[in-house]
Design brief:
The protein is an all-alpha fold and 157 residues long. The protein is 68% helix and 0% strand. The chain has one domain. The two termini are 14 Å apart. The chain is globular and about 50 Å long. The mean pLDDT is 89. Helix 1 packs antiparallel against helix 4, helix 4 packs across helix 5 and helix 5 runs antiparallel to helix 6. The protein is built from seven helices and no strands.
Length: 157
């Protein structure tokens, strides 16, 4: 079992819970917003996944599936991180999802989007930083010390 100082443990748990709250809240907002769709975000994709994004937008059934998976993925990842339940899987899944967002609409010079952002970014955005933070949460798991994974581990013994 990995041991951390109390400050390290509490800081990592707090980081895990805060990011979990953010992702859970984003998923719930999407779920409760009857008109929400990823079509606007995907329609502005300009980088590596732009072809895939345009294909998704052009197929209504695929778009609905992506919207469903995005909404419920955010909710599941958020719950996993907050509760410390399968948190390594949740952290890696969350990092992958955030990287997909980043790769669709990165803050590079010459790329402009009609959707307003919360600031001015150049290469590094809050999405990329949050993805890295989730990677750190996955590398330094705390849920077996403070989370439901602790109880699962005990049941296995």
């Amino acid at each position: 079992m990995k041991t951390y100082t109390n400050l390290q443990l509490y800081s990592l748990v707090l980081l895990r819970i805060l990011i979990g709250w953010h992702l859970l809240y984003e998923g719930i907002v999407k779920l409760l917003s009857s008109g929400w769709s990823s079509v606007g975000f995907l329609g502005e994709s300009q980088w590596i996944f732009s072809g895939l994004a345009q294909w998704i937008v052009s197929h209504d059934g695929v778009l609905q599936t992506v919207d469903f998976l995005n909404t419920w993925g955010l909710i599941a990842i958020g719950c996993g991180l907050i509760l410390g339940l399968f948190s390594r899987i949740a952290a890696i899944s969350g990092a992958a999802l955030l990287l997909m967002y980043y790769f669709n609409n990165p803050p590079f010079i010459g790329m402009e989007y009609s959707v307003p952002t919360e600031g001015s970014y150049l290469i590094i955005s809050k999405t990329l930083i949050e993805a890295l933070a989730l990677w750190i949460v996955a590398l330094f798991p705390t849920s077996k010390q403070f989370g439901l994974d602790f109880f699962i581990k005990r049941l296995k013994k």
